[in-house]
Amino acid sequence: QNYNRRSGSSDSQPKRSTPRRPLTEAQQRQRAERLKRTPHRLRVDYQQSATKHYGDERQAGQRPLTGGADSVRQNPFQQPTYRPAPQRPPAKRAKTQHVNAPRAITPRTGTPKTGTPRQIPLRTGVSQSDTMPVGGADAPSPRQGTQRAQRTQGTQRTQSAQGTQRTQGTQRPVEAVTVAERRKRVQAAARRNRGISLRVIVIPAVLLLLVLAGVLVYYSSLFAITEVRVEGAKRLTADHLAELAAVPVDSTLLRINTDEITERLQQDPWVKSAVVEREFPATVVLLIVERPIAALVDIPSDTATGPNRLWLISDDAYWLSSVDLEGESVCQNAWVPKSELDTLISIKDVLRTVQPVEGALVTDEGVRNALSILNTFTPEMRSKVESVSAPDEVKTSLSLKNHVGVAFGAAEDIPAKEAAILRLLKEHEGNITYINVRVANRASCRLLEE
């Protein structure tokens, strides 16, 4: 005796032949609502289910009547009624046929859906032996049949919309194409291919010609340099700057290296910044910004009997040039007349150890402190200063043009110290000889004896 695992009994035991009582209308409505709420839990392979239950009729080219995606079978054991499916052309059927989107199968009592019914394609590899068995151990029970029908309907609801969208998106009307129209289409495609081929050949050829032309122009003497023009220089001469730039004679505007020329120009201590520009067809322009003279530094001689050394210093603390009083210009490469020395503020009492070099940065603390004071003064205060004594940072003092001495000190609180000096000079005009502003908020003065 073989034990049947589905029925829970052996083959010798009697099988239940009485079907269960059909569901009432209320139970059918509850089951339909539950199926709408949870369709994703009841998805099964529709093709296998439909083939097992309705394989004979499906293989014969029949399909069941449908009553819509939301229809519910009233009696799951009642055989549905089938009607023949419409015959479609093979080409259209191949485009619109979708295996994974069948429609719902409804019982005989359901309302058939309007419109042309759609034939459900059969899954390949399904034989007659795969249809629903009539009896035996593999026959489904009535409860299993009801659950299988509900799962099939839930799967149909979710797949019917997708199948409709795919069918609508892939259907295209068949157009009648004449021989003339086909010839025109072939000629248009040939013209497009010919244009693409021409572009593939012409564009690289044009680019290659442009590159070759650029190389020929770069190494030719088409833009040879014939003039070097200097702009912005007031003290430096054009010949000196042209010699310093050292523009090659056989060079052109295309081959010239402007960065190297700029570096050579900035080696001069008078040049603060330089820019080299090309002006076609044959001119190089040198834009020069010079350093202004801030003061005249009087450095004691190394020997007791030797003359003092005079040096010009810029406002950014660079040694510009030594002063030679024998010629018309006190500098060798720059134009500085002798008369201009009388208008400059001199920095005196500098240490003998100071050794200036052209283009080098000033390192002496006393000189840098005096230069910071002069750069911060307003034009009104600067016009009153005749000289600055700068032995060191603390002992820095000023000598005014009205023979008044000012003990200034370090370059701190310069605006407050300047205001105190101008106030005392105004209050005691012509009757003051000495001012002490080393501490800005405690300024003092010394007056003449009456």
Percent helix among the residues? 25-40%
Residue-averaged pLDDT: 76
Count of DSSP E strands?
16
SSE pattern: EEHHEEHHHEHHEEEEEEHHEEEHEE
Unreliable stretches covering 5 or more consecutive residues: 40-48, 53-74, 94-99, 101-117, 119-139, 164-170
Sequence of strands across the biggest β-sheet? 10-9-8-11-12-13-14-15-16
What structural class do helix, strand and pairing data support?
alpha/beta
What coarse outline follows from CA principal-axis ratios? Answer: elongated
Largest sheet descriptor: 9 strands, mixed
- Roughly how many Å is the radius of gyration? 54 Å
Distance between the termini: 150 Å
* Secondary structure tally, helices: 10
Content of β-strand = 15-25%
Descriptive overview:
There is one protein chain. By secondary structure, the chain is of the alpha/beta class. 33% of the residues lie in helices and 16% in strands. It has helices spanning 25-37, 46-59, 90-96, 142-170, 179-218, 238-245, 258-265, 365-376, 379-382, 414-427; strands at residues 3-4, 9-10, 62-64, 82-84, 227-231, 271-279, 283-290, 293-299, 309-314, 319-322, 346-348, 385-389, 397-400, 405-407, 432-436, 444-447. Strand 1 (3-4) and strand 2 form a beta hairpin. It starts with a strand and ends with a strand.
